[in-house]
Specification:
Elements lengths: L14 E6 L7 H24 L11 E3 L2 E3 L1 H19 L5 H20 L3 H8 L3 H20 L11 E6 L1
Helix pairs in contact: 1-2, 1-5, 2-3, 3-5
């Protein structure tokens, strides 16, 4: 006896469309990180231009730069902060964790300045006080909020494309 096997042909599922974004899309998070980072790099460079870079003592002289007293050490710190924030903004897709970490550091530094927790050391090293502390708190909180809460989506007109996915 011969057995006949019946093959049942099942049609493939209908493809669905899924909107995707490429990781190299530029979004608002990256632009904000680049803008703030560039601002801090310029502020640090201006501070170093005014104070100089005496290697033997980075905590003096103090000079007024854009309404805030600066020491060479503060200028270097601003330069480093701005460079790291620029790096976070230039990474494709945005480095949100790095941005959040930098914003947290800026906020903590500002809180120390505003509360005067270590006024002698902080003032002697960086030459700043509560006004610069408030600037640091505002910038730091803004960077953290931007990193965590700004949507990751790019606008519909800038979407990378559509790919077919079988579900």
């Amino acid at each position: 006896m011969e057995r006949r096997q019946t093959l049942r042909v099942v049609p493939p599922p209908e493809p669905t469309q899924e909107r995707t974004t490429r990781p190299d899309d530029w979004g608002a998070v990256q632009l904000i990180a680049i803008a703030i980072g560039l601002g801090y790099v310029l502020l640090g460079l201006a501070a170093l231009a005014r104070t100089g870079l005496p290697i033997d003592h980075l905590d003096r002289p103090y000079r007024e730069v854009m309404g805030f007293r600066h020491s060479p050490l503060l200028g270097l710190a601003e330069l480093g902060f701005g460079a790291w924030l620029l790096t976070a903004g230039l990474i494709a897709g945005g480095a949100r964790l790095l941005m959040a970490m930098l914003g947290t550091v800026a906020t903590a530094f500002g809180v120390v300045l505003v509360l005067g927790v270590a006024p002698e050391r902080v003032h002697a090293w960086f030459g700043v006080g509560a006004p610069y502390g408030w600037l640091s708190v505002l910038v730091g909180v803004f960077v953290v909020i931007t990193a965590f809460f700004l949507p990751d989506e790019t606008p519909p007109e800038r979407r990378a494309g559509v790919r077919r996915v079988v579900t």
